[in-house]
């Protein structure tokens, strides 16, 4: 039998049911639910819609339900009031930007302990004034947005903060693929960093901070001394900002520090000696500051917990001749450009955990050590040294090595047959002294994406790459075998992934192969300086519609240019010069869409260095840097036997910067329409049989800086315009049938046509202006916008490259 319930027991049940139960069914506080709903409402209505987002993530946020049960909301289960304490609102609005003021309702929930609004494309400033009431906040993540402005001072009133992440507020450089997957990548170089100003010294008042992540913004000034008060700090990321001055020596006070990342700033001075006190230090990244100087202290290798040491890209020097007894098992080591001499340091032999090694840009010499081939390294970068001898075959049998960059050394010998056993994703051996043929086994490497064998002495036929991996398509996307001694037919069978095929300066012969039409993703095809013969086939109209660069310069092609070439709607660089082409130009050339539209920034970015594209640019060979290639639009048909009239449709190609039709047999007039090629900077029509007058319309070409009309049969007056008046070298007009004009100081006789009266006046005005302008300064064309230096791009971001194919 049940015992009767005593009074206390009765009271218990009474209170339980009457008070307690209803209290549980009470959801989060009414005002907090209201704030959340307000947020939802703002978010769903405040989208600057450039991409659809349906916010399925906030579907559970319904007005009459318990907000503690909503997705992304966490309540305090220990307190009867069940206040909201956690909000994990990552990636609500992929690809749609939102005004940061949508956060305001959330910032009224003063019970918040964690707030994560990362990956939301939030725009505008951090709403500092609204943040002050979050007095219990421990973790604040506003990373991966587009927040701008500076850090609001109110943030420093949040004394409870243990974790603050404002990293990667960046605009531009939209990334394809799922942005969340890129989260762990350190090295992406697109877009503009946003949050700016100095890091306020008040940061030192957040004494509970354990994690402080401010990387990839635009912070400048110095690293505030007050950070040395953050005694609890364990993780400190400041890389990719514009910080200058020295690293505060007091950094050594932060005894719990395990990660210190200061790479890619403008820091100067030496490595502070106090860092040797950081016994917990696992990661020290000081790469690419350029201003860091001095000897690399040997005690660094005595830090027992150190796993990642990245010092490359500074003015640091390392005396590589002493013996090092490393106390640590390093995983990543970069001593790029640290002045290392002698052999590859052999203490690395014991670094069996190493998976990333960068010793590029030093003066290392000697041969490739066998023991190095046997370590389980995944990424090995030894480019730009003086290493020589042949490569150990075991290097190619490593089952861990995926990225191997040995360009610009003096390695020689053959590429071993073991090649096919490798696991390479990326292999770069450019500018060495390798010889012999390329082993056929190379085509068995299913994952190989990037292969650069350019500038060696490799010979023989290049293996056919069309291997089918039981239905899978090989990944090869980038192949550079230019400047070798390869012969035989032009290799054209590749997997459909191929985008860049650079095979110039070899001895390839035979006709232009039809197999190229299968490569539907091809962006660049460069075959200059080979021995390709026969006609340009009409099937070129079926080449990849994404083809942007097509170069057949200096081959033995004959026949006429096929009409169907206008099908190549992405073509921006077409170079068919130095062949034996004849016939007249198809007027369809004027339909090359990409030469009509203004340039768009490049579709694909490569995470590794791509060799400059070499073309004749303004009368000399120039290397065009890949990163700026989208700016160039070029049509070069010079040095052929093309004849007939120049089709006036060429004037449609409005975005053309460079047009070269010289050294052909063109006759007739220069088309009036050339005046419409607004962007034209260089026009070469020399050595033809052109007659008539120079069209007055050419005076519209305000960007023209290089002109050659010599060796034709032109007559009459040179049109006048500020730009044309600067082009006053007589050689531009030499060997014609009587050209006159003030530019070449040949007066026009009265029989030579005079422009109509009214225009004359205007011309004179312009002329006076132009003579002045010529002294004030030249119009420097867009070449000034082009940086030639090839920055070093961390190969790790090969991942980004993968995302793009
Ligand atoms: C946003 O979408 C609405 C309706 O779909 C449309 O009318 C408006 O033009 C769009 N705004 C922008 C900036 O694209
Ligand atoms: C964001 O919204 C606030 C308030 O609605 C407004 O004052 C501000 O101009 C907006 N900012 C931007 C960049 O749209
Ligand atoms: C902060 O809280 C106080 C008191 O609850 C309130 O008066 C004030 O409006 C709040 N400030 C903001 C910016 O929400
Ligand atoms: C922040 O960006 C917005 C546009 O999103 C702009 O209106 C505002 O001027 C910027 N603020 C600062 C400080 O750059
Ligand atoms: C930091 O950048 C701001 C502009 O964002 C500028 O006004 C300030 O002078 C810079 N400070 C230093 C120390 O370079
Ligand atoms: C360092 O971390 C340890 C263990 O997490 C902790 O006990 C200690 O208080 C920390 N030291 C300082 C100076 O904060
Ligand atoms: C090591 O290099 C230094 C100069 O950096 C030189 O003075 C010293 O003699 C060298 N030691 C050995 C053992 O070669
Ligand atoms: C490259 O190595 C060869 C021997 O393999 C040597 O004869 C040659 O001088 C070296 N070249 C350079 C530039 O060091
Ligand atoms: C390449 O190697 C050959 C020997 O195989 C050598 O004669 C030649 O000098 C080397 N070339 C360079 C540039 O070092
Ligand atoms: C141009 O391309 C289209 C589709 O890519 C194709 O159907 C057509 O036959 C091509 N034109 C010529 C002349 O080959
Ligand atoms: C060029 O394109 C226009 C419009 O697309 C078309 O009417 C014309 O026939 C084309 N010209 C040639 C020569 O292909
Ligand atoms: C140049 O053109 C004239 C007529 O315009 C013609 O008689 C002559 O043969 C042409 N010369 C060449 C080399 O084509």
TrEMBL record:
Q: Which InterPro entries match?
A: Leu-rich_rpt, Leu-rich_rpt_typical-subtyp, LRR-RLK, LRR_dom_sf, LRR_N_plant-typ, LRR_R13L4/SHOC2-like
Name its cellular compartments: Cell membrane; Membrane
Question: Where is the organism placed in the taxonomic lineage, from the top?
Answer: Eukaryota, Viridiplantae, Streptophyta, Embryophyta, Tracheophyta
The parts of the chain that form a coiled coil are none
The UniProt similarity line reads: Belongs to the RLP family.
Q: What is this protein called?
A: Receptor-like protein 46
Instruction: Determine if Membrane is one of this entry's keywords.
Output: yes
Q: What sequence ranges are listed for the domain Disease resistance R13L4/SHOC-2-like LRR?
A: 178-366
User: Any one cellular component term from GO for this entry?
Assistant: plasma membrane
Species of origin reads Cardamine amara subsp. amara
Assign the protein's first listed, main location to one coarse class: membrane
What residues does the Leucine-rich repeat-containing N-terminal plant-type domain cover? 30-76
Q: Quote the Gene3D superfamilies the UniProt record gives.
A: Ribonuclease Inhibitor
């Amino acid at each position: 039998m049940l015992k009767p319930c005593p009074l206390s027991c009765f009271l218990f049940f009474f209170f339980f049911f009457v008070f307690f139960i209803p209290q549980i069914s009470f959801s989060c506080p009414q005002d907090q639910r209201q704030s959340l709903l307000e947020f939802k409402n703002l978010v769903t209505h405040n989208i600057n819609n450039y991409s659809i987002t349906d916010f399925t993530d906030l579907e559970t946020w319904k007005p009459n339900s318990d907000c503690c049960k909503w997705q992304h909301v966490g309540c305090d289960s220990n307190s009867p009031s069940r206040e909201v304490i956690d909000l994990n609102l990552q990636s609500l609005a992929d690809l749609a930007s939102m005004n940061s003021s949508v956060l305001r309702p959330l910032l009224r929930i003063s019970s918040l302990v964690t707030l994560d609004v990362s990956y939301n494309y939030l725009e505008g400033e951090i709403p500092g004034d609204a943040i002050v009431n979050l007095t219990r906040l421990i973790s604040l993540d506003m990373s991966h947005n587009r927040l701008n402005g500076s850090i609001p001072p109110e943030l420093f009133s949040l004394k409870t903060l243990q974790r603050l992440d404002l990293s990667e507020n960046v605009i531009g450089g939209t990334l394809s693929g799922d942005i969340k997957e890129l989260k762990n990548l350190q090295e992406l170089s697109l877009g503009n960093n946003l949050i700016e100003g100095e890091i306020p010294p008040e940061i030192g008042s957040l004494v509970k901070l354990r994690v402080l992540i401010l990387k990839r913004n635009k912070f400048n000034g110095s690293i505030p001394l007050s950070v040395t008060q953050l005694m609890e700090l364990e993780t400190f990321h400041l890389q990719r900002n514009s910080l200058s001055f020295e690293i505060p020596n007091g950094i050594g006070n932060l005894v719990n520090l395990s990660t210190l990342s200061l790479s890619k700033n403008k820091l100067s001075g030496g490595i502070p000696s106090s860092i040797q006190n950081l016994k917990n230090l696992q990661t020290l990244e000081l790469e690419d500051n350029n201003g860091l100087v001095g000897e690399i202290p040997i005690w660094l290798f005595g830090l027992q917990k150190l796993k990642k040491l990245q010092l490359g890209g500074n003015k640091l020097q390392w005396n590589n001749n002493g013996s090092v007894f490393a106390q640590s098992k390093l995983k990543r080591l970069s001593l790029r450009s640290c002045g290392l001499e002698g052999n590859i340091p052999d203490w690395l032999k014991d670094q069996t955990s190493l998976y990333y090694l960068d010793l590029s840009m030093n003066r290392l010499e000697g041969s490739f050590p066998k023991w190095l081939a046997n370590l389980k390294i995944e990424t090995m970068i030894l480019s730009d040294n003086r290493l020589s001898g042949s490569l150990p075959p075991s290097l190619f049998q490593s089952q861990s090595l995926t990225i191997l960059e040995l360009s610009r050394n003096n390695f020689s010998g053959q590429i071993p047959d073991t090649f096919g056993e490798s696991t390479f994703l990326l292999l770069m051996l450019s500018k060495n002294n390798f010889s012999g043929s390329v082993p056929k086994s190379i085509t068995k490497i299913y994952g190989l994406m990037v292969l650069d064998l350019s500038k060696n002495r490799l010979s023989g036929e290049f293996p056919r790459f069309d291997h089918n991996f039981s239905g899978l398509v090989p990944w090869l996307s980038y192949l550079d075998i230019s400047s070798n001694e390869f012969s035989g037919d032009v290799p054209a069978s590749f997997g459909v992934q191929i985008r860049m095929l650079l095979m110039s300066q070899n001895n390839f012969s035979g006709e232009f192969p039809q197999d190229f039409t299968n490569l539907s993703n091809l962006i660049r095809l460069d075959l200059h300086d080979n021995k390709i013969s026969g006609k340009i086939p009409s099937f070129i109209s079926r080449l990849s519609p994404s083809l942007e660069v097509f170069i057949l310069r200096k081959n033995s092609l004959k026949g006429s240019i096929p009409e169907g070439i206008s099908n190549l709607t992405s073509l921006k660089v077409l170079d068919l010069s130095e062949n034996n082409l004849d016939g007249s130009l198809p007027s369809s050339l004027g339909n090359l869409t990409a030469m009509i539209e203004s340039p768009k920034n490049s579709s694909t970015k490569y995470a590794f260095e791509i060799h400059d594209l070499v073309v004749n640019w303004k009368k000399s060979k120039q290397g065009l840097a890949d990163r700026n290639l989208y700016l160039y639009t070029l049509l070069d048909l010079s040095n052929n036997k093309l004849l007939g009239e120049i089709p006036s449709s060429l004037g449609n190609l409005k975005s053309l910067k460079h047009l070269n039709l010289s050294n052909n047999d063109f006759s007739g007039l220069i088309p009036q329409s050339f005046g419409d090629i607004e962007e034209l900077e260089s026009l070469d029509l020399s050595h033809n049989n052109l007659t008539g007058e120079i069209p007055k319309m050419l005076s519209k070409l305000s960007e023209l800086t290089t002109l050659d009309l010599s060796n034709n049969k032109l007559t009459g007056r040179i049109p006048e315009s500020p730009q044309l008046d600067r082009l006053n070298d007589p050689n531009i007009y030499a060997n014609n049938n009587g050209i006159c004009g003030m530019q070449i100081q040949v007066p026009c006789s009265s029989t030579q046509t005079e422009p109509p009266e009214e225009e004359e006046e205007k011309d004179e005005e312009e002329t006076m202006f132009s003579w002045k302008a010529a002294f004030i300064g030249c119009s420097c064309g867009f070449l000034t916008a082009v940086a030639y230096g090839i920055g070093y791009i961390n190969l790790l971001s090969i991942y980004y490259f993968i995302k793009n194919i």
